[in-house]
Amino acid sequence: MSEKIRIGFVLPPGHWLGGKNYLRNLFAAIQAVPDHTITPVIFTGEHHEDLSDFHDIEVVTSSMFDHKTAARFARRVLIKTASQDIPLWRLLKKHHISVLSHSFQTGQSKTIKTVGWIPDLQHIHLPKFFTPEERTRRDRDFMSACEHCDAVVVSSKCAAGDLISFAPQYAHKVRLLRFVATPVPLANAASLEDLRQIYNFAEPFFLLPNQFWAHKNHRVVISALHQLKLQDKKFLVLATGSSSDYRNPAFFPSLMQYAEQCDVLDRFRVLGQIPFHHLAGLMQHATAFINPSLFEGWSTSVEEAKSMGKQVLLSDIPVHREQAPERGIFFSPENPDELAAAMIAANDGFDIHQDADMQTRAMARFPARQREFGEAYQTIVNKLVPSTK
């Protein structure tokens, strides 16, 4: 029997929900591969956030990953003076790690292979959403990953093309790994009746499960609702996700001011961050998901719609075309009239029995899609570190 390759993943302090969800999906895919040859190990701080999503994954804690600790300070000094993350390499070796994956590490190790991860190069396409300092930092970090890592993972052909254009000398390191989202578990999902009572709505609804960041383009949804109101058509959009954006603290208040100006506050309902079983219920019972983003590396909400068999109204951007959801309706992200027409079509064509049937079919197809994801990642790792007998 082959000895499994131990893969280290550093989960830094903070609340980047997208990164956490990505790892949750990746770990599930790894474990879905029959006789898988790799095993993930999480490295995180001693004061880490809730890791219940990773209850079946080995976790190693160290204060070097916590904010404002002596170990973290010493680590930063060593990185600056030696251009190597010596404390991290030592910790990884202590726990028999063969590959450090999805991490922006400093320097290289002679014994540990590294797989970098670049979610997207949005700052090149939409520089207005980043400060000059952020653009410089992203350029530096991404180039460093390309230079020092043995391979660099991206989630789409679009991102692969962007990265090769950005760092053509490292094109040979780029690896395509399209992630597949695990369907939300519906066994404990809140019922439609409970959701209506909790969130005070009665009519059918569209679900917009995106963080309130400028590039997520909630504004076009508000504009579409305004156009529908002028046509005397009342549709409800329930929006979930954090309203905080450190890059642009004024964005959410300005968005809600725009909704007020359009007189659609009763139709664009912000629920914020809600319990997971509530979100699962909303996903199950929504007429359709909406993703109006101006840019994505590989959309989680679109993948969730695919895995659940849900209809999704999505912006006509290259990566969404690449994701190709079976029940997708595309609209120009700059054209609220197109989105309004898509909402009318989705609403008029909605059939609860057909929706349930499509969910059942998607769930039946999911295991094969998940295994394909896990096998693709395992192939990347095995080419770096062949499994040993």
Automatic annotation (TrEMBL):
InterPro entries: Glyco_trans_1. It holds the Pfam family Glycos_transf_1. SUPFAM superfamilies: UDP-Glycosyltransferase/glycogen phosphorylase. Residues 203-345 form the Glycosyl transferase family domain. Signal peptide: none annotated. GO terms for molecular function: glycosyltransferase activity. This is Glycosyltransferase involved in cell wall biosynthesis.
